[in-house]
Amino acid sequence: MNSFNFCKKVSVVVLALALTLSVTACGKTNQNSEKKNIKVGFLAGPYSDQFKRAVQPILEKKGYKVEIVEFSNAVQPNSSLTDGSIDANVFQHIGYLKGINEKDKSDIVELIKVPTAPLGIYSNKFKKLSELKEGAQVSLSSDASNLARSLVLLQQAGLIKIKPDIDPLKATEKDITENPKKIKIVPLDAPQLPRSLADVDYSIITGNHVIAAGMKLSDSLLLEDPPAIYQIILAVRGADKDKPFAKDLAEAYKSKEFRTFVENDEKAKGFSKPDYWK
Prior knowledge:
Layout: H1 3-35, E1 37-43, H2 46-61, E2 65-71, H3 76-82, E3 88-93, H4 94-104, E4 108-113, E5 120-122, E6 137-141, H5 144-156, E7 161-162, E8 176-178, E9 184-188, H6 193-196, E10 202-205, H7 207-212, E11 222-223, E12 232-237, H8 244-254, H9 256-264
Parallel strand pairs: 1-2, 1-3, 6-9, 6-10
Antiparallel strand pairs: 3-12, 4-12, 5-10, 5-11, 7-8
Helix pairs in contact: 2-8, 2-9
GO cellular component, one term: membrane
InterPro entries: Lipoprotein_NlpA (IPR004872)
Family: Belongs to the nlpA lipoprotein family.
């Protein structure tokens, strides 16, 4: 082999090696960039507001570029998480998510529970539940899990009884065994419940819709102490649950800074605390 051919072959090898290193470096750069750009979905209301004011700044200090995506109905946050349009969402409890995963064959998982605005009973016509009259109309959420949750709250208030062996996540109007006041149940889409107060006697409303409507949790005639199955969760795709961005999201929610914010924010009065803050 003459010296010219030898030098040519060496140049080709060096060039190929340089290209390989360059491609690898670019790949790592893109991967790192993707990990630092995250989209989090919400329904408009207190969970989006809290994230924007107190969680997002913590993530941005860690170098994340964060985009908040607000949806108009409860179907979109999970469908968008499944198709990759967003990276996480905060709007639902685990009971609702289980129903979605079963129905859609999706793989969305809970990372942690977050401070939760509880379900409550409200009225524009009466100041006490004891004033409830026979045949009173009570509006509540029409989605299966929150309808069941509302029936459980009515039972806790001593107004109805439901079958003792029924799964509290699946109770329906057909499971009411005693209704001495002959209460008329009025199922509605959850966002419509605050407006329904003008027409019905009482309404059972989830806390996020109460706050989104400009009402206060303290206006409730009865607030639930939400069990774990009804506490709002931070959710991600199952494949992402161990990724750094998911862990950083969870740590931001668990942080001392966010806890201090919630405990001192006027809008968060009445929120239940997750176990890791107790």
